[in-house]
Protein backbone atom coordinates (compact mmCIF):
# COMPACT_ATOMS: atom_id res chain seq x y z
CA UNK A 1 0.00 0.00 0.00
CA UNK A 2 2.81 2.46 0.86
CA UNK A 3 4.49 1.80 -2.51
CA UNK A 4 1.23 2.56 -4.30
CA UNK A 5 0.95 5.75 -2.27
CA UNK A 6 4.41 6.93 -3.38
CA UNK A 7 3.52 6.10 -6.99
CA UNK A 8 0.40 8.23 -6.64
CA UNK A 9 2.54 11.17 -5.49
CA UNK A 10 4.90 10.78 -8.47
CA UNK A 11 2.09 10.49 -11.01
CA UNK A 12 0.31 13.48 -9.52
CA UNK A 13 3.36 15.71 -9.87
CA UNK A 14 3.96 14.60 -13.47
CA UNK A 15 0.33 15.10 -14.46
CA UNK A 16 0.12 18.59 -12.98
CA UNK A 17 3.07 19.84 -15.02
CA UNK A 18 0.66 20.03 -17.96
CA UNK A 19 -2.12 21.89 -16.09
CA UNK A 20 -3.13 25.28 -17.47
CA UNK A 21 -3.68 27.64 -14.54
CA UNK A 22 -4.30 30.95 -16.35
CA UNK A 23 -7.90 31.90 -15.53
CA UNK A 24 -9.92 34.55 -13.75
CA UNK A 25 -9.85 34.06 -10.01
CA UNK A 26 -11.87 35.93 -7.38
CA UNK A 27 -9.78 36.21 -4.20
CA UNK A 28 -12.25 38.31 -2.20
CA UNK A 29 -13.05 35.52 0.28
CA UNK A 30 -10.09 34.51 2.45
CA UNK A 31 -9.73 33.05 5.93
CA UNK A 32 -7.59 35.91 7.25
CA UNK A 33 -9.79 38.57 5.65
CA UNK A 34 -12.83 36.98 7.26
CA UNK A 35 -11.06 36.83 10.62
CA UNK A 36 -10.11 40.52 10.38
CA UNK A 37 -13.77 41.41 9.79
CA UNK A 38 -15.33 39.12 12.38
CA UNK A 39 -12.81 39.83 15.15
CA UNK A 40 -13.88 43.49 15.15
CA UNK A 41 -17.39 42.36 16.12
CA UNK A 42 -16.26 39.54 18.42
CA UNK A 43 -12.79 40.32 19.86
CA UNK A 44 -12.73 37.04 21.80
CA UNK A 45 -12.53 34.79 18.72
CA UNK A 46 -9.32 33.16 17.47
CA UNK A 47 -8.46 31.31 14.28
CA UNK A 48 -8.75 27.54 14.55
CA UNK A 49 -5.37 26.14 13.57
CA UNK A 50 -5.47 22.55 14.80
CA UNK A 51 -2.60 20.45 13.45
CA UNK A 52 -2.30 16.69 13.94
CA UNK A 53 1.28 15.67 13.17
CA UNK A 54 0.24 12.05 12.64
CA UNK A 55 -1.73 13.01 9.52
CA UNK A 56 -0.13 12.36 6.11
CA UNK A 57 -0.88 14.99 3.48
CA UNK A 58 -0.53 14.84 -0.29
CA UNK A 59 -1.46 17.94 -2.22
CA UNK A 60 -2.52 18.68 -5.78
CA UNK A 61 -3.68 15.22 -6.80
CA UNK A 62 -5.38 15.53 -10.21
CA UNK A 63 -8.86 14.03 -10.29
CA UNK A 64 -10.40 15.51 -13.45
CA UNK A 65 -9.41 17.11 -16.74
CA UNK A 66 -11.82 19.69 -18.15
CA UNK A 67 -11.59 21.16 -21.64
CA UNK A 68 -9.26 23.85 -20.31
CA UNK A 69 -7.35 22.53 -17.31
CA UNK A 70 -6.86 19.93 -14.60
CA UNK A 71 -8.77 20.00 -11.31
CA UNK A 72 -7.02 18.73 -8.20
CA UNK A 73 -7.69 17.69 -4.62
CA UNK A 74 -5.65 17.34 -1.44
CA UNK A 75 -5.70 14.13 0.60
CA UNK A 76 -5.32 13.99 4.41
CA UNK A 77 -4.63 10.44 5.56
CA UNK A 78 -4.23 8.48 8.79
CA UNK A 79 -0.77 6.93 9.01
CA UNK A 80 -2.11 3.40 9.39
CA UNK A 81 -2.71 2.03 5.88
CA UNK A 82 -3.57 -1.46 7.12
CA UNK A 83 -7.29 -0.73 7.40
CA UNK A 84 -9.78 1.12 5.23
CA UNK A 85 -11.50 4.27 6.44
CA UNK A 86 -14.68 6.14 5.55
CA UNK A 87 -13.93 8.97 3.10
CA UNK A 88 -14.98 12.58 3.67
CA UNK A 89 -15.07 15.03 0.77
CA UNK A 90 -14.81 18.63 1.97
CA UNK A 91 -16.31 21.45 -0.15
CA UNK A 92 -15.28 25.05 0.50
CA UNK A 93 -17.59 28.06 0.40
CA UNK A 94 -17.29 31.50 -1.14
CA UNK A 95 -20.61 32.33 -2.79
CA UNK A 96 -19.96 29.95 -5.72
CA UNK A 97 -17.45 32.56 -6.93
CA UNK A 98 -14.49 32.73 -4.51
CA UNK A 99 -12.63 30.55 -2.02
CA UNK A 100 -10.36 27.53 -2.45
CA UNK A 101 -9.76 24.05 -1.08
CA UNK A 102 -6.93 25.23 1.18
CA UNK A 103 -9.58 26.91 3.35
CA UNK A 104 -10.65 23.45 4.49
CA UNK A 105 -7.18 22.33 5.61
CA UNK A 106 -7.69 22.84 9.34
CA UNK A 107 -10.98 20.95 9.31
CA UNK A 108 -9.45 18.20 7.19
CA UNK A 109 -6.51 17.83 9.54
CA UNK A 110 -8.83 17.60 12.55
CA UNK A 111 -10.87 14.82 10.94
CA UNK A 112 -8.11 12.79 9.31
CA UNK A 113 -7.20 10.62 12.30
CA UNK A 114 -10.49 8.72 11.80
CA UNK A 115 -11.22 9.28 8.10
CA UNK A 116 -9.58 9.71 4.73
CA UNK A 117 -10.31 13.36 3.99
CA UNK A 118 -10.24 14.97 0.53
CA UNK A 119 -10.47 18.73 0.01
CA UNK A 120 -11.62 19.41 -3.52
CA UNK A 121 -11.06 22.13 -6.09
CA UNK A 122 -14.08 22.80 -8.31
CA UNK A 123 -14.95 25.33 -10.98
CA UNK A 124 -16.37 28.61 -9.67
CA UNK A 125 -18.77 30.98 -11.37
CA UNK A 126 -16.17 33.18 -13.08
CA UNK A 127 -14.97 30.07 -14.89
CA UNK A 128 -18.16 28.06 -15.41
CA UNK A 129 -21.82 28.35 -14.48
CA UNK A 130 -24.03 25.79 -12.74
CA UNK A 131 -24.04 22.79 -12.99
CA UNK A 132 -20.27 22.68 -13.63
CA UNK A 133 -19.35 22.80 -9.92
CA UNK A 134 -21.85 20.06 -9.14
CA UNK A 135 -20.52 17.91 -11.99
CA UNK A 136 -16.95 18.40 -10.75
CA UNK A 137 -17.90 17.27 -7.26
CA UNK A 138 -19.73 14.21 -8.58
CA UNK A 139 -16.53 13.35 -10.44
CA UNK A 140 -14.55 13.80 -7.22
CA UNK A 141 -16.85 11.26 -5.52
CA UNK A 142 -16.39 8.86 -8.43
CA UNK A 143 -12.61 9.38 -8.25
CA UNK A 144 -12.64 8.51 -4.54
CA UNK A 145 -14.68 5.38 -5.22
CA UNK A 146 -12.19 4.27 -7.88
CA UNK A 147 -9.07 4.54 -5.73
CA UNK A 148 -6.90 1.54 -4.98
CA UNK A 149 -3.85 3.41 -3.64
CA UNK A 150 -5.66 5.16 -0.79
CA UNK A 151 -7.18 3.28 2.19
CA UNK A 152 -10.78 4.27 1.35
CA UNK A 153 -13.82 2.20 2.23
CA UNK A 154 -15.76 3.06 -0.93
CA UNK A 155 -19.08 2.02 0.62
CA UNK A 156 -18.79 4.79 3.22
CA UNK A 157 -18.45 8.24 1.67
CA UNK A 158 -19.76 11.52 3.07
CA UNK A 159 -19.64 15.12 1.86
CA UNK A 160 -19.13 18.13 4.12
CA UNK A 161 -19.65 21.65 2.81
CA UNK A 162 -19.49 25.17 4.24
CA UNK A 163 -21.83 27.97 3.06
CA UNK A 164 -22.18 27.61 -0.73
CA UNK A 165 -20.24 24.37 -0.29
CA UNK A 166 -22.98 23.25 2.09
CA UNK A 167 -25.59 23.84 -0.61
CA UNK A 168 -23.49 21.74 -3.00
CA UNK A 169 -23.02 19.01 -0.40
CA UNK A 170 -26.78 18.79 0.14
CA UNK A 171 -27.37 18.71 -3.60
CA UNK A 172 -24.97 15.77 -3.89
CA UNK A 173 -26.88 14.05 -1.11
CA UNK A 174 -30.30 14.51 -2.70
CA UNK A 175 -29.96 14.38 -6.47
CA UNK A 176 -29.48 10.64 -6.69
CA UNK A 177 -31.27 10.26 -10.01
CA UNK A 178 -28.65 12.37 -11.79
CA UNK A 179 -25.42 11.51 -10.00
CA UNK A 180 -24.35 8.57 -12.20
CA UNK A 181 -23.19 6.35 -9.36
CA UNK A 182 -21.69 9.18 -7.30
CA UNK A 183 -24.00 8.48 -4.37
CA UNK A 184 -22.94 9.40 -0.85
CA UNK A 185 -24.09 7.93 2.44
CA UNK A 186 -24.10 11.09 4.58
CA UNK A 187 -24.03 14.87 4.33
CA UNK A 188 -22.89 17.60 6.72
CA UNK A 189 -24.28 20.96 5.62
CA UNK A 190 -22.56 23.80 7.47
CA UNK A 191 -24.67 26.96 7.05
CA UNK A 192 -25.53 26.34 3.41
CA UNK A 193 -28.93 27.29 2.03
CA UNK A 194 -31.02 24.52 0.51
CA UNK A 195 -33.47 26.65 -1.49
CA UNK A 196 -32.76 29.59 -3.78
CA UNK A 197 -36.35 30.64 -4.38
CA UNK A 198 -38.02 30.39 -0.97
CA UNK A 199 -39.69 32.77 1.52
CA UNK A 200 -36.59 32.54 3.74
CA UNK A 201 -34.07 33.02 0.95
CA UNK A 202 -32.24 36.30 0.35
CA UNK A 203 -30.09 35.15 -2.57
CA UNK A 204 -29.46 37.75 -5.25
CA UNK A 205 -26.58 38.81 -7.48
CA UNK A 206 -24.05 36.07 -6.67
CA UNK A 207 -26.60 33.29 -7.06
CA UNK A 208 -27.95 34.86 -10.26
CA UNK A 209 -24.45 35.05 -11.71
CA UNK A 210 -23.75 31.38 -10.93
CA UNK A 211 -27.16 30.18 -12.10
CA UNK A 212 -27.05 32.13 -15.37
CA UNK A 213 -29.75 34.67 -14.59
CA UNK A 214 -32.35 35.79 -12.08
CA UNK A 215 -35.16 33.51 -10.99
CA UNK A 216 -37.50 35.15 -13.52
CA UNK A 217 -34.93 34.51 -16.26
CA UNK A 218 -33.79 30.99 -15.25
CA UNK A 219 -36.40 29.42 -12.93
CA UNK A 220 -35.45 25.87 -13.92
CA UNK A 221 -31.81 26.40 -12.93
CA UNK A 222 -32.82 27.89 -9.59
CA UNK A 223 -35.03 24.89 -8.88
CA UNK A 224 -32.44 22.31 -10.00
CA UNK A 225 -29.80 23.87 -7.76
CA UNK A 226 -32.06 23.77 -4.67
CA UNK A 227 -31.64 20.57 -2.61
CA UNK A 228 -35.03 21.14 -0.98
CA UNK A 229 -36.79 20.43 -4.27
CA UNK A 230 -34.69 17.32 -5.00
CA UNK A 231 -35.44 15.36 -1.81
CA UNK A 232 -36.38 11.74 -2.52
CA UNK A 233 -36.41 8.36 -0.81
CA UNK A 234 -32.67 7.87 -1.46
CA UNK A 235 -31.53 11.20 0.02
CA UNK A 236 -28.54 10.80 2.33
CA UNK A 237 -28.73 11.21 6.10
CA UNK A 238 -27.89 14.80 6.93
CA UNK A 239 -26.46 16.87 9.76
CA UNK A 240 -27.26 20.59 9.55
CA UNK A 241 -24.86 22.82 11.50
CA UNK A 242 -25.87 26.46 11.46
CA UNK A 243 -24.81 29.91 12.55
CA UNK A 244 -27.16 32.27 14.34
CA UNK A 245 -27.88 34.15 11.08
CA UNK A 246 -31.33 33.10 9.77
CA UNK A 247 -30.77 33.77 6.04
CA UNK A 248 -28.31 30.85 5.87
CA UNK A 249 -31.00 28.45 7.10
CA UNK A 250 -33.18 29.10 4.04
CA UNK A 251 -35.30 26.04 3.30
CA UNK A 252 -33.68 23.92 6.05
CA UNK A 253 -36.78 23.27 8.15
CA UNK A 254 -38.89 22.41 5.10
CA UNK A 255 -36.18 20.01 3.94
CA UNK A 256 -36.04 18.35 7.36
CA UNK A 257 -39.81 17.87 7.28
CA UNK A 258 -39.63 16.30 3.82
CA UNK A 259 -36.84 13.96 4.93
CA UNK A 260 -38.68 12.97 8.10
CA UNK A 261 -41.79 12.16 6.04
CA UNK A 262 -39.60 9.74 4.06
CA UNK A 263 -38.05 8.23 7.19
CA UNK A 264 -34.61 9.74 6.54
CA UNK A 265 -32.48 10.57 9.56
CA UNK A 266 -31.46 14.19 10.22
CA UNK A 267 -29.81 16.16 12.98
CA UNK A 268 -29.71 19.92 13.35
CA UNK A 269 -27.75 22.21 15.66
CA UNK A 270 -27.44 26.01 15.70
CA UNK A 271 -24.45 27.65 17.40
CA UNK A 272 -25.71 30.64 19.40
CA UNK A 273 -24.26 34.09 18.77
CA UNK A 274 -22.06 32.82 15.95
CA UNK A 275 -21.04 34.47 12.66
CA UNK A 276 -21.78 32.83 9.34
CA UNK A 277 -18.16 31.68 9.01
CA UNK A 278 -18.01 30.18 12.52
CA UNK A 279 -16.26 27.02 11.23
CA UNK A 280 -12.99 28.96 10.91
CA UNK A 281 -12.91 30.13 14.52
CA UNK A 282 -12.65 29.23 18.17
CA UNK A 283 -14.73 28.83 20.33
CA UNK A 284 -16.95 27.04 17.76
CA UNK A 285 -14.41 24.88 15.92
CA UNK A 286 -13.91 22.05 18.42
CA UNK A 287 -17.62 21.64 19.28
CA UNK A 288 -18.35 21.56 15.54
CA UNK A 289 -15.75 18.84 14.95
CA UNK A 290 -17.16 16.83 17.85
CA UNK A 291 -20.67 16.99 16.39
CA UNK A 292 -19.42 16.00 12.92
CA UNK A 293 -17.50 12.99 14.26
CA UNK A 294 -20.44 11.89 16.43
CA UNK A 295 -22.88 12.10 13.50
CA UNK A 296 -20.59 10.33 11.03
CA UNK A 297 -19.63 7.60 13.47
CA UNK A 298 -23.32 6.74 13.84
CA UNK A 299 -24.26 7.12 10.17
CA UNK A 300 -21.34 5.86 8.07
Outline the structure in words.
The protein is an alpha/beta fold and 300 residues long. It has one domain: Alpha/Beta hydrolase fold, catalytic domain (Rossmann fold), CATH 3.40.50. It has 9 helices and 10 strands. It has helices at 2-16, 31-41, 105-111, 132-146, 164-174, 205-211, 219-224, 252-261, 285-299, and strands at 46-47, 56-65, 70-77, 85-91, 116-120, 152-162, 186-190, 237-242, 266-270, 281-282. The chain has an 8-stranded mixed beta sheet, sandwiched between helices. Strands 1-10 form a two-stranded antiparallel sheet. The relative contact order is 0.14.
- Cα end-to-end separation: 24 Å
CATH architecture: 3-Layer(aba) Sandwich
Strand order of the largest sheet: 2-3-5-4-6-7-8-9
Main sheet properties: 8 strands, mixed
Provide the residue-averaged pLDDT.
Answer: 91
How many distinct domains?
A: 1
**Shape from CA axes?**
globular
Q: Give Rg in angstroms.
A: 18 Å
Instruction: Give me the count of strands.
Output: 10
Helix residue percentage: 25-40%
Strand content: 15-25%
Order of helices and strands: HHEEEEHEHEHEHHEHEEH
Secondary-structure content class:
alpha/beta
- Low-pLDDT stretches: 13-20
CATH third-tier fold name:
Rossmann fold
CATH superfamily: Alpha/Beta hydrolase fold, catalytic domain
Top-tier CATH class: Alpha Beta
Please work out how many helical segments DSSP would assign: 9
Amino acid sequence: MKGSFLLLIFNSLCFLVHAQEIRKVDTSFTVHGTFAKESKRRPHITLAEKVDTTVLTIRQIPYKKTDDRILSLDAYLPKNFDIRYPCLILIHGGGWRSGNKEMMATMANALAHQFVVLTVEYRLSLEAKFPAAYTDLMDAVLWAKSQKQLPIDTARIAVIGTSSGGQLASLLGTNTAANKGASVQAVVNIDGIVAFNHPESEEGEMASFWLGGTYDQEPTQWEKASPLYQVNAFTAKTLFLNSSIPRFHAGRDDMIRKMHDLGIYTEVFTFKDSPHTFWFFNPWFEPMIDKIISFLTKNL
